[in-house]
Amino acid sequence: MAEADRPWEVAAPFGLLAELTHRCPLHCPYCANPIQLTPRADELTTAQWKDVISQAHAIGVVQLHLSGGEPLARADLPELAFHARSSGAYVNLVTSGVGLTRERALLLADRGVDHVQLSLQDADAGPADYVAGARAHQCKLAAAKAITGAGLPLTVNIVLHRGNIGRTARIIDLAVALGADRVELANAQFYGWGLLNRSTLLPTRDQLDASLVAVEQARTRHAAAGRGPHIVHVVSDYYAGRPKPCMDGWARRQLTVTPSGDVLPCPGASVIRSLPVENALRRPLAEIWYDSEAFNAFRGTGWMSDPCRSCPSRHEDFGGCRCQAFHLTGDAARTDPVCRLSPDRALIDSALAQAGGLPQADHVMRTPPVADARTASEGR
Ligand code: SF4
Ligand code: FES
C-alpha cells in the first residue's frame, strides 16, 4: 500500500463554521444555505452555542467563523464573540452588513471579533439590490465604513455570476475604495439555491475569460497605486475541468454546526441523505469529529473508486466535492463530475452548452424558513 493510502490519521480540526441562524434580510439566489432552512424556534440557545464553542476549542479549533444566514440577527452575537475570544479563538464575523452600525461594530470589536468578512452583491445599488431582493447596498457601504472605523480588518466577498461578472473591475475598485484588506471574488457554486438557479447564474466562457483579464488588470492597477489588497479569484470549477480540493479534504480541517446543532463535515453535507446526521445536543463534538460515520465516510483516499483511486492527483484534490457528486449523480462516492476524467463529465458539459440561455428574471429567490415566514405574516 502506498504511504499516502494508509488508513487516514485524523488531525484536530482547525476551524469551526458556526451557522448561528438561517434568518437573513437578503434573498440571494446563490445562497449557500440549504433549501430546507432552520426556523428560529429550532435555533440553539446562547448557552448551547457557548457549549459548542467550548467543545470546539477543547478539540483544537483555533478559528471560529460566526456566520449564518445573518449572524447579526442574533442578539447574543457580542456574548458569543466574547466567549469564543475568551476561549482563545480567532473570531471572524461573516455578514451581509445589514444592521451593522458604527455602534455595533465598535461593540463587536470590543467583545473580541478579530476580522469581518462583508458580502457585496455588485458595484451599483440597482443590480445589487435586485439580486439581494432587498435594498441593502447602501447599508453595506455604511457597514464597511463602520468596520474599518472600528479598526477591524475587512475582507470583501463577492459572488460572481452571469449578472455581475461583466462588472468585475468596478466591483474590485469599489472594494478597494471601501478599504478592503482582502477581496474574494468567488464564482457562484452550484449547490442548494445555486443549483436551483444554475441556468440563470452560470456565466458564459467569454464572460469568464473577460473577468480573468479584468482581475489581472485590477491587480496591476491597484498594486501600482500602492494600495493593493490581496485579491483572491475562485473560478467556477465547471470551466476548470479539474475539481477543487473541496473543504481541503472531507472532514480534514473544519466542521460546521448548523443553527439547530447538526454537525456536518461541510456546510452543504446535509444534502447527502445517505449519511447519518449528528447533532451537538446528542453527542460530544470530539466523538463526532473522530468517530462518526458521517465524518469518516470520505476521509483520505480509501473510499475512492476509479478513476480517482489510481489517479496521481487524488492527494491534491481529494476527488473533488462530495456534495457536488451527490447533487449531480445521486452518489456522493462518485468522482466529482467536473473532472475531465469523470464518467459523468457530460452532465457538466451539457450545463455549459446552455450557459447564457435563461434571463436572470427567472431566478428563484431564497425564501425564509417556512415557520418564520408564517410568524412574520401573522405579525408575531
Ligand atoms: Fe481528481 Fe479523481 Fe479527477 Fe484524478 S480522477 S483529477 S483524483 S477527481
Ligand atoms: Fe460539501 Fe464540497 S460542498 S464536499
From TrEMBL:
Binding residues for [4Fe-4S] cluster: C24, C28, C31
Cofactor annotation: [4Fe-4S] cluster
Keywords: 4Fe-4S, Iron, Iron-sulfur, Metal-binding, Oxidoreductase, PQQ biosynthesis, S-adenosyl-L-methionine
Biological processes annotated in GO: pyrroloquinoline quinone biosynthetic process
Pathway it works in: Cofactor biosynthesis; pyrroloquinoline quinone biosynthesis
Reaction(s) this enzyme catalyzes, per UniProt: [PQQ precursor protein] + S-adenosyl-L-methionine = E-Y cross-linked-[PQQ precursor protein] + 5'-deoxyadenosine + L-methionine + H(+)
Parts forming coiled coils: none
Name of one Pfam family that matches: SPASM
Top EC category: oxidoreductase
Enzyme Commission designation: 1.21.98.4
Top-rank taxon, per record: Bacteria
Cofactor note text: Binds 1 [4Fe-4S] cluster. The cluster is coordinated with 3 cysteines and an exchangeable S-adenosyl-L-methionine.
Domain Radical SAM core: 10-229
One Gene Ontology molecular-function label: 4 iron, 4 sulfur cluster binding
Family matches, as InterPro entries: 4Fe4S-binding_SPASM_dom, Aldolase_TIM, PQQ_synth_PqqE_bac, PqqE-like, Radical_SAM_PqqE_MftC-like, rSAM, rSAM_sf
Family per similarity comment: Belongs to the radical SAM superfamily. PqqE family.
NCBIfam families: PQQ_syn_pqqE, rSAM_more_4Fe4S
Known function: Catalyzes the cross-linking of a glutamate residue and a tyrosine residue in the PqqA protein as part of the biosynthesis of pyrroloquinoline quinone (PQQ).
Oligomer and partners: Interacts with PqqD. The interaction is necessary for activity of PqqE.
Name of the molecule in the record: PqqA peptide cyclase
